[in-house]
Amino acid sequence: MSTQANTGIPFSYSHSQSPIRLLELPPALLSLVTSPSPPIIKIKAAPTPANTTGPRGSENHAVLCTPTQTFSLRHVHCSNSILLVQPSEPPPSNTEECEQQAFSLTSVGLKAVATAGSWLELIPVTPDCANILQGRIPVYHGWTEDAPALPATEEPTSRARLLDSMPVSDAEFSTAWDALLAFETNDGVACRPSTSVILKTITEINTSATAESFSLSSSSGFTVSAVLGMLDDAEIPAGLVSVVIGSMCDRVDESMEDEAWRLNTGV
């Protein structure tokens, strides 16, 4: 009597289970990480939400950041265990057992090497970057001796350190940084200018440009380095000059100069 080959697959559990953590990726993020040039993905610590109550309120929270977007990580439990398997050789069997089997098993089996009872879910969030950043950087009050530049109680930090420590993407951070006219002093300290400092910087630029017959509204534009050259006698931080120029001028796209600007006259 002829018999048909059994297509059953031997299955076994590994004695030592490997710890794993599963991460569910949205389709857009999956396409991003599997693209020919995948970007750097960061996982950052995030503060516990203010409305979190109960025993979960003391847990650590984290976010996943792509270059342009932030996702909150949520721990999701599943009712059925998820097994991670890999191919394995089936255990050897003696000839007598093989003769007693009506069907033969395949030569390659599966072995469960890890078990997961939960996974991490990604939820898109829109953090209030400007509000977070505003509370993290001090106000710059001026460059003269009668006006201390930064409060003595503030611990100085750089833009790079702020970016690494804030639970937001690089693009979201840059947008908030630009909106606050934040800059780094000549010593590399991140800060944001007060309104009086912004007005004083504009006055210094206009006064120096007038004295040097330097046009800020020429069709060819001007560079920040040229303005800094006019302000050589003043101790205005170069970063402050750059952000003030960026706030009141438009970039000249047709200029051959690198980062050329033209005064926005509203015309």
Automatic annotation (TrEMBL):
Q: Name one GO biological process term.
A: maintenance of mitotic sister chromatid cohesion
Q: What is this protein called?
A: Sister chromatid cohesion protein Dcc1
Which family does this protein fall into?
Belongs to the DCC1 family.
Q: What keywords are assigned to this protein? A: DNA replication
The record's annotation in InterPro entries points to: Dcc1
What is the residue range of the signal peptide feature?
Answer: none
Question: From what superkingdom does this record's organism come?
Answer: Eukaryota
**Record keyword Ribonucleoprotein present:** no
Cellular component, GO annotation: chromatin; chromosome, centromeric region; Ctf18 RFC-like complex
